[in-house]
Specification:
alpha+beta, six-stranded antiparallel beta sheet, 34 strands, 41% helix
Length: 962
Amino acid sequence: MTAKQMRRNRVQPPDISSPEFPVPVALFSSRRLLECNSLFAEQFLPVGEGTSAGLSLQGFLGAHNASFAKELGRLVAATEPARSALVREVGLPGREAERRYLLSVLPVVKDEKRVLRIVAQDVTAYAQRTRNAEEAEARYRIFVENSATALALVRDGIFTYVNKGLLDLFGYMFREEMEGKDAAQFFPAKERKLVAEHARTVKGAAPVPERFEATALRKDRHRMLLEVQTEPLTIDDQPTLLWHCLDVSHWRDAEAAVAQKTRENETLEHLLDAIHRSVDLADVQRLTLVAAIRWLGYECGGVFMPGPDGKSYLLETHERLPAPLLSALHELPAGEGLMGYIAKTVEPVRVTLEEYPAHLPFRSLFETEHIHALAFLPLVHQEKLAGVLMLLTSKVQDAPAHHPAFLEVVSRHLGFALEKAVTYAGIQRRADGYQNAIEQLASIVYVAAPAGTFLYCSPVAEAITGYKVRELAATPDAWRAIVHPDDRSTAAGRISRQAAEENAFSLDYRILPKGKASYIRVRDSICYTRGADGGVQTIHGLITVLADQPEIQRDAAALQEVRQQLTDEQHRGMQLLLLNEIGSGLNGALDRQSALELVHARLAPRLRIDAFGYDALASPPDILKRIFTTLGTLPPDVNEPLSLSEGALPGDHPFRPVLETSEPFVGTTPAFGSVIAVVVSVRGRMDGILWVAREDDEAFTASDLRLVQSIASLLSTALERIGMSEEALTKARGMVTRNEELNRFAHVVAHDLKEPLIAVEGYTKLVLEDAGDGLDATSRDHLQAVMRSSTRMKSLIDDLLLLASVGHTAGRESTVAVGPLLDGLSHDLEFFFQQRHARLEISPNLPSVRCDATELGIVFRNLIVNGIRYNRQAAPIVSIGATCDNSMATFSVADNGIGIDPADAHRVFDLFQRLQFVDEQEGTGAGLAIVKKIVEANRGRIWVTSAGGAGSTFFFTVPLHG
């Protein structure tokens, strides 16, 4: 190399140990390390070795970079000056592991020699992030391609891309069947205009993300309700729409089913609460009719009961029936016409007048009275028709529509209440008869407490003893005081012999009637009634004057018969009260387990049992699975699941005849002792077996069987209601999950949409600021229009999110004082009022209402701001007032603005409906749609009155507090 060339290539390196090199840097000759800074030494030199370690260029680069080392050697030996640094990303061996570095290599002159200055920048993390991004992009591409989520790209109404999820949704196999095709052709003709509007893209426009629903056609021509979320994108410099498609057919069906089930459950709860308030027959009939009219949505009706001869039904109770109907329907034959039809089907019937069978009478009468819909509910108890409930309405639009299964549940509950009242009335009549019979006896009939105090004493006692009944029942010693002193120890045997095992005996002693000088001899025939623990609960007795022995025997026999009848009636009455308790308790049961627990808790103290259980029928497998049981000392194998396969259930098992015939079993078995087992059916299908057992062989009575059957009937209706509630709850949970997913999706989409808008707005602002006067007026106007559009689109996204969130704030209702709310709102808008020279007038003494305070503030803010914004007056004024009725407050928000043409008043609450040009007025067109949705979500309504140019007054209603 000549001296001239040396001077030309001489580039003196700076001091590499200076702070201006915050990265590893070193000087290399073609063979070895000449010099390096501390960072280079820390990363590439062995521990404890300095710059004189003799690190070669080949050793620094590693064997896998041998070609790069040769290239650097040629660079040192070159005579031509380097115009720029050589930059290369390589992997270098370090002290711990190989890492990625970006090497910047430049030939320089050091001590009259040409050497290489190498600067190493660690890019391991950056390279890893780059690889991760590339891998994520590849994974995301695979995910989108094979995702079950239906996605498509639409440009100018044409599918430019569809993924596998969309193909599966529409039932196609190959992309060619959809890509390149008009998106509207996959929808019915009446939907294509809507689809075309949401599939149109315009270059240079700023499309808004939207959601729409339309009926779509699968390849097999099956229809589905499709929800499509559109998101604007730019692909290959062309405006494109991303379609996210979702089949919501089953969700809409589920929403309707949940709403129906919820209404039916609420209705059933109100009905049951009303009909179980009394056991009096007249009250039950009246309460049943009034509750059914109110909660089933009818206007009038009546209750028909079987006549004495059983050949007709009599209208015993009615409510608001027109006189012509009352006259014509007061008695109907049992075997023909309306009652004959109901008696044959024993199923609830709900028809409109157009559906009313032509062969049945009274159609013309119903037409004359403008009846639109009729319902006949057979009041059934234990498969017997106890009566018929008739409901009528003249409303056309609001004709009640209930699921047949629900009406059947209602019929059974009402039938049980009616039968319970009929039974109670019969018991009461018989009890009155027995009371009269007792009072006709010549002997004293009494019931006493274990201590001896009379609880009841027949009126004949006054004629025999001369004392008033109340005097004899005052204290335990009142009767002892009239007993002869020598016989008092004998008379005391009524109490003292309770510890013995005998339950019936007689005592003879003397008593002194009031005002008499001589004693009379009486015989006290005593019978103890004992409880389950063996203790005496009551003492029943017959006191007869010992005069005529045949008369005594007659009275004793009559008393024994009456006592037995009273015992039977008392037993039936207790069973009736027990059924009433169980029926009322089952109304509040939320699941099968709690229902069975309640039945056991009520039944066990009233019926001596050692075991109680419920075996549910599961299929498949075909087994009886014991889901509830309480056992005494019964064998453990009775608690095992029972297989119903052929030969698996022993022939002597008490459940075999129940399963084979569906008839109840009552009897004794070796494993159980005495058993009652009855079928529980739900919706016409066997659900399981309810059984009770005793360890000993004391047989259950026919009365016990009737009691368990009645309990099974109550349990059947309760399980049916619980099943309906669980179905509604399951569907409601699915809806909540879906709504949460949609809300998250909306917020993610909104966030992703606002990010590019913020970037567009920011860069536009930078161009306007940096370019200064270099832009012409037209260019500045265009850029300012871009900024205004970006700002408006961000506001529109926020409004759409707000609109989507309205109605999802259940449980946030509170009592809101409107006056203080408006004072705070006025303070927040003070700067806005000053800008527009506006004034807000608020009436004093505004009411408190029941709603969500935040949403009510949004309503007032939108109406106030609109009244000032759409106003050409020098001093805009908005006035707020209110009026109240029994349950609602009506607020008015009046302004002196530009007004609304009455022909357009119905459009102002529609989404994106703005009656002024965008360039003339601010706003997104979503404000009043948000207001309307909030008001309706809070159980109110909104309307507007206006004349063009004369201001507008918006009215809306909100429920009052309490």
